[in-house]
Structure formats: structure tokens, C-alpha cells
């Protein structure tokens, strides 16, 4: 099974900060990676697919990069609506989610 | 507008059974693969069971294999999850989601399953 490890687990940041979350796969997954945002009490929302493709309707301050085993999600200028938990998900072999990264207010 | 509405959750004793349903609307249900994903209280996301658009291909997570059965009725635009031999560790919010080329682009709001004596 492919394991996905996110870092950090928690990130404290201020509005306007550039934020980067890392996701590592236990083996190569090419670009078969998605990122989701989840707010408390809500279902996850797809942000990025194929490692770097922005889902329709998602603000352009979100971007994804990487391939193989190392991936990043970047928020170029953190907005109040972005405080949430973020999950990566591989879909190279079935599906595995990372453990999540909580972005909280500094 | 795409909508997915789960139902059927509740409180059940260990060893009991529940059947979850997911009613889909706003898209051609029969064209899409579907998946169940769960989230234990305060924990992360875990895929549970997948079904192809025609129902012929199914994948189950090892944690539920032999206990849970996914199915669908394309005529009724509905997805199901039959859960048997429930364990305390199955307690979670269960989401159905639309699978678009293996990423999950629409999710329901979830139905809570609590397994407790």
C-alpha cells in the first residue's frame, strides 16, 4: 500500500502569508495526486488534481507542484477563508489520503 | 447542480448492521464511478469502498473487506453501502463522493454512524 505523509501537521500563519504544505508518497505516484480543503463540519472540497491542475472555481492563489514522491500545495497569499485542514490524496494505486495539515490563525 | 445526499446512519451495537444510501441528482449518475469515504471523529479521511459506473468493478478497503458491500441502482440514481458485523472502530461520518478519473469532485454532507454498546 502507498503511504502519504504530510508536513507539517499544524501550521500557524497570518493573513497575507505565503503558505506551503508538503506531501510525500512512499513510492512514486507520477502526478496522480489531489489536494482537498476541509472546513469544520463540512465535506472536503477538491482544490487541485493531477498534482498541479486547479479545479474549476478554485482561486488562483492556490497552486500545486511536484511529481514522483514529493508534492507541495502553496497558498500565495493566505485569506481568512483559507483557514482549514488540507489533505493530499494519491490515486496511482487505489486511494490513500495524507493525515492532514491544519492551517490555523497565528 | 450536483447534489449527493446521504442517509441511513445511526446508533448501532457492535456486531449489528446498517445500510447507507446516497441519492444523487444534477448529473448523469450512470456515467460516473462512485466511492464511500469515512472520517472518524477528529481524524482524517479514509476511503472505504468504490464502485464502477456499471457496478461491475468493486474495490473495498482492507479494513472493511468481507463486512461491507457497495452497490448502486442507476435507475434510481442511488448508491448504497451495506455494513455488517459493525465494530466500534467503524464509528465515523460516512461520505459518498463522485469519482471523476479517481479524484473526488463532489461530496455529500455525510451521515454519521456510531457503533457503541
**What is the CA-atom radius of gyration of chain A, in angstroms?**
13 Å
**What oligomeric state do these chains adopt?**
heterodimer
Low-pLDDT regions of chain B:
none
SS field, number of helical segments of chain A: 0
C-alpha-based Rg of chain B, rounded: 13 Å
Q: How big a fraction of the residues of chain B is strand?
A: over 45%
| SS elements, strand count of chain B | 11
Distance between the termini of chain A: 36 Å
The topology string of helices and strands of chain A comes to EEEEEEEEEEE
What string gives the helices and strands of chain B in order? EEEEEEEEEEE
Approximate shape of chain B: globular
Helix content of chain B: under 10%
Helix count from the secondary structure assignment of chain B: 0
Layout of secondary structure:
The complex is a heterodimer of chains A (106) and B (117).
Chain A: E1 4-7, E2 10-13, E3 19-25, E4 33-38, E5 45-49, E6 53-54, E7 62-67, E8 70-75, E9 85-90, E10 96-97, E11 101-105
Parallel strand pairs in A: 2-11
Antiparallel strand pairs in A: 1-3, 3-8, 4-5, 4-9, 5-6, 7-8, 9-10, 9-11
Chain B: E1 3-7, E2 10-12, E3 18-25, E4 33-39, E5 45-51, E6 58-60, E7 68-73, E8 78-83, E9 92-100, E10 103-107, E11 111-115
Parallel strand pairs in B: 2-11
Antiparallel strand pairs in B: 1-3, 3-8, 4-5, 4-9, 5-6, 7-8, 9-10, 9-11
Notes on the structure:
The complex is a heterodimer of chains A (106) and B (117). Chain A has 106 residues and is an all-beta fold. Chain A is built from no helices and eleven strands. In chain A, 0% of the residues lie in helices and 50% in strands. In chain A, the strands form two sheets. In chain A, strands 2, 4, 5, 6, 9, 10 and 11 form a seven-stranded mixed beta sheet that branches. A four-stranded antiparallel beta sheet of chain A has the order 1-3-8-7, with no helix packed on it. In chain A, 36% of the residues are buried. The mean pLDDT of chain A is 97. By secondary structure, chain B is mainly beta. Chain B is built from no helices and eleven strands. In chain B, the strands form two sheets. In chain B, strands 2, 4, 5, 6, 9, 10 and 11 form a seven-stranded mixed beta sheet that branches. In chain B, a hairpin with a 4-residue loop joins strand 7 and strand 8 (78-83). The radius of gyration of chain B is 13 Å and the shape is globular. The model of chain B has no long low-confidence stretch (mean pLDDT 97). Classes of the chains: A mainly beta (106), B mainly beta (117). Chain A binds chain B through residues 32, 34, 36, 38, 42-46, 49, 55, 87, 89, 91, 94-100, and chain B through 35, 44-47, 50, 59, 95, 101-105, 107-110.
Amino acid at each position: 500500500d502507498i503511504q502519504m505523509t504530510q508536513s507539517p501537521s499544524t501550521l500557524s500563519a497570518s493573513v497575507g502569508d505565503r503558505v506551503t504544505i508538503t506531501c510525500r508518497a512512499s513510492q512514486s505516484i507520477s502526478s496522480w495526486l489531489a489536494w482537498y480543503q476541509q472546513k469544520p463540519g463540512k465535506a472536503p472540497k477538491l482544490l487541485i488534481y493531477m498534482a498541479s491542475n486547479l479545479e474549476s472555481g478554485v482561486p488562483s492563489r492556490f497552486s500545486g507542484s511536484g511529481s514522483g514522491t514529493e508534492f507541495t500545495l502553496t497558498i500565495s497569499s493566505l485569506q481568512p477563508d483559507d483557514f482549514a485542514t488540507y489533505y493530499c490524496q494519491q490515486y496511482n494505486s487505489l486511494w490513500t489520503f495524507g493525515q492532514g495539515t491544519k492551517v490555523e490563525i497565528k | 447542480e450536483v447534489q449527493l445526499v446521504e442517509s441511513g446512519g445511526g446508533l448501532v451495537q457492535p456486531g449489528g448492521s446498517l445500510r447507507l444510501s446516497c441519492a444523487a441528482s444534477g448529473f448523469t449518475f450512470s456515467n460516473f464511478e462512485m466511492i464511500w469515504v469515512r472520517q472518524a471523529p477528529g481524524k482524517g479521511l479514509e476511503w472505504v469502498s468504490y464502485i464502477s459506473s456499471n457496478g461491475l468493478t468493486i474495490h473495498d478497503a482492507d479494513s472493511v473487506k468481507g463486512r461491507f458491500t457497495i452497490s448502486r441502482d442507476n435507475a434510481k440514481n442511488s448508491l448504497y453501502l451495506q455494513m455488517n458485523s459493525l465494530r466500534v472502530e467503524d464509528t465515523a461520518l460516512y461520505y459518498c463522493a463522485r469519482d471523476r478519473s479517481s479524484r473526488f469532485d463532489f461530496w455529500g454532507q455525510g451521515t454519521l454512524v456510531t457503533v457503541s454498546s
